[in-house]
Structures are given as C-alpha cells and as structure tokens.
Fold this protein.
Amino acid sequence: MSSAAEPTQPPASPAEGKSVALVTGASGGIGTGLVAAFRHAGYSVVATSLSIGPSDDHDILAVQSDITEVGPAQRVVKQAVDRFGRIDTLINTAGIFIGKPFTDYTLDDYKAIMAVNLAGFFHITQPVIRHMLTQGTGGHIVNITTSLVDHPDSTRPSALASLTKGGLAAVTRSLAIEYASRRHQDPIHDPSSYEGMAALHPLGRIGEVSDIIDAILYLEGATFVTGEILHVDGGQAAGHVERPPRHNQP
Ligand SMILES: NC(=O)c1ccc[n+]([C@@H]2O[C@H](COP(=O)([O-])OP(=O)(O)OC[C@H]3O[C@@H](n4cnc5c(N)ncnc54)[C@H](OP(=O)(O)O)[C@@H]3O)[C@@H](O)[C@H]2O)c1
C-alpha cells in the first residue's frame, strides 16, 4: 500500500462542509472499510465501483462506474464535485488479481488486469489531480498495491499483478515528487541555514518532533505492521525536487 501526497498536512477543511474522499473499489472488502472509516472521520465520501448500490447516508454518494472506460471515470469525478464541491482525498482501491504461471496468462488476462489496475488508475486520477490543482488546497492520492510487488512468492505466481501494482507503486513516488512543491515556492536560502536544509526535502520543510511522534503513534495503533521501514523524511525516499530560483525576492 502506498501513498502519494501533495501537501504534508491533512486536507484542509473547507470553509463550508466536510472534507471529501473519493474511494474506488468501494464495494470490496478494503473499499467498504475505507468508506466507513472516512465517514467515521467526518468526511463526505464518494464511493464508486462497477456494481455498488445506493446508500441511505446523505454524506455518501454511491456511483456505479466502469473505470476501465475514460468517460465513466471522468463522470465520477464530475458527480463528486457537483455533489460535494471538492475532492480532498482519492483512494484507488479498485483492482483485480489474476494469479497463474506467467506462460499460462492469456491476452484477455493481460488486457483485463491492465484495464482495471493501470488504465483505471489513470482515468480517475488525472481528472482528480486536475481538480485538486484548481481547488488549490492540496490533496492526497492513495494507491493500494500489493506486497507481492516487493516480495514475489514462488508458491503464488502472479507476474501481471506485479507488473500493474508495481507500476502503481512507482507512479505513487513519481506523483509525490511531481507535486511536492506545489504549495512550497521557497526562495533560495543559504544551504546551511534552517530554510536551506528545509529546501532539500521534497515537502519543503524540516521534520518536527511532532512528525516523528505522529509516525510512532501510527505504528502503535497499526497492529498489522511489523518489520516496516517507515520513512518520516519529507519525501526524500521517494525522490528529489529541484526548486527553481525565485527572482522576485528583495
Ligand atoms: N484482499 C487482499 O488480500 C489484497 C491483497 C493485496 C492487494 N489487494 C488490493 O487491495 C485492493 C482491494 O482489494 P479487495 O480484496 O478489497 O478487493 P475486492 O473485494 O476484490 O474488490 C475489488 C473492487 O474493485 C472494483 N472493480 C473491479 N473492476 C472494476 C471496474 N472495471 N470498474 C470499477 N470498479 C471495479 C470492484 O467493484 P464491483 O464489486 O462492483 O465489481 C470492487 O469494488 C485491490 O486493489 C487489490 O488488488 C488486496
């Protein structure tokens, strides 16, 4: 599971109304749990999947959509904005898994898994990020991958899962770095100064004690996480951001 985030802070609460999360694959086990968890956290939620049914909750907009098609995916984003006025978080949960020996995969297997896991990601994430940029308050993109990307298992051959989810893991880092500086247009500073060191971090600031505490408290409550190297580093493990000089400084 990986996360690409534009800002370092949680989504800003809109002046009116709640923050909004869009969850794909919302009819599945993880997606259903995410919808409930975000509602519990006070978000309005757009829950989408191929076959999802309507919700009685006024703060959940359930939208049936096939994200392998660009038009339906874009309509989900439009409906989300029409209904709730904003999108703060997108969680790409929709995914399919086809496990078999590599030489047994059919062309139909290949097309199906590429269509949901990669094209589906692209179709929905692009308009969401466009909207977030217009919105101007940042946002979070979370992509659900699989541990098989980093740890293939000979007893569970699944190369197409690795091919597609590995792409998601890579693009997560790529987007994190591409958009890291959108909210940080720092002037050039002496590299040895506090501000100069902050500029070395993709997120444009130095870590605070509270950042470490947040991570440790997360681990304290995350009872299914162990042996994990959690980078609390302002995005440095994901990549490098080159900040262009600003010429309007005094
Ligand atoms: N469960 C695991 O053990 C596990 C392990 C590693 C990674 N993951 C990943 O975690 C994510 C969620 O897993 P899960 O087990 O909770 O999934 P799941 O129960 O199989 O649900 C998959 C979801 O994807 C949706 N979906 C499939 N094709 C779609 C399409 N063309 N357009 C729109 N939505 C589509 C499904 O919608 P419908 O139900 O409406 O068809 C469903 O909501 C997946 O990305 C999976 O690869 C899961």
